[in-house]
Amino acid sequence: MELITARLTLREFVDADAPFILTLLNQPSFLRFIGDKKVRTVDDARRYITTGPIASYQRHGFGLYLVELKDGKVPIGMCGVLERESLPDPDLGFAFLPEYWGQGYAFEAASAVLKEARDTFKLTRILAITNPDNDASIKLLAKLGFQLERVMKLSSDSDEVKLFSLMFEPS
Ligand SMILES: CC(C)(COP(=O)(O)OP(=O)(O)OC[C@H]1O[C@@H](n2cnc3c(N)ncnc32)[C@H](O)[C@@H]1OP(=O)(O)O)[C@@H](O)C(=O)NCCC(=O)NCCS
Fold this sequence. Notes:
Blueprint: E1 2-4, E2 8-12, H1 18-25, H2 28-33, H3 42-60, E3 64-69, E4 75-82, E5 91-96, H4 105-119, E6 125-130, H5 135-144, E7 147-153, E8 160-167
Antiparallel strand pairs: 1-2, 2-3, 3-4, 4-5, 6-8, 7-8
Coenzyme A is lined by residues 29-30, 33-34, 94-96, 101-107, 130, 134, 136-137, 140, 143.
């Protein structure tokens, strides 16, 4: 599986991506806006890849993909579709290293993931959740066509999130 855009390649995660995952999941922005996955070592990162993205490809077909620059195969972030018990439909997820923000990479990657979700996985609706203060993410979701549904909690003891949705036009 590979999604190719003008500047990027998106592909399934493999074991060898563990050092990159360790870096990405410990970015202050990731810890603040997504949460602490308690990935502190390369071994933790390997476990995360196996029980997170790889388990999701096997169970649902989709999952978070590694995003790399075509130029030099530099890993810059992750983007993909997640399935969680706490939401009625799959949701879009994304996180990029800060040095690659502000260049339209997240928009380019997410557009390819949404196209695959509609055309290959035949989803009719996709959700997204953000921390209410995550302005960069909310701006990106608006550019992708998502609309705010409501503020909600994923579980009774968790913080509030904003829930967005996007209906796919029939292709
Ligand atoms: C959320 C996140 C992915 C957004 O990244 P981003 O780089 O701001 O998003 P985009 O790809 O849409 O880039 C938009 C910016 O690139 C600029 N840009 C430059 N070249 C561009 C191009 N060729 N095409 C489109 N936009 C371009 C836009 O003008 C815009 O700049 P602005 O924010 O100053 O208006 C990023 O902030 C992130 O990884 N945050 C941490 C993790 C996180 O919060 N994830 C979301 C959890 S819900």
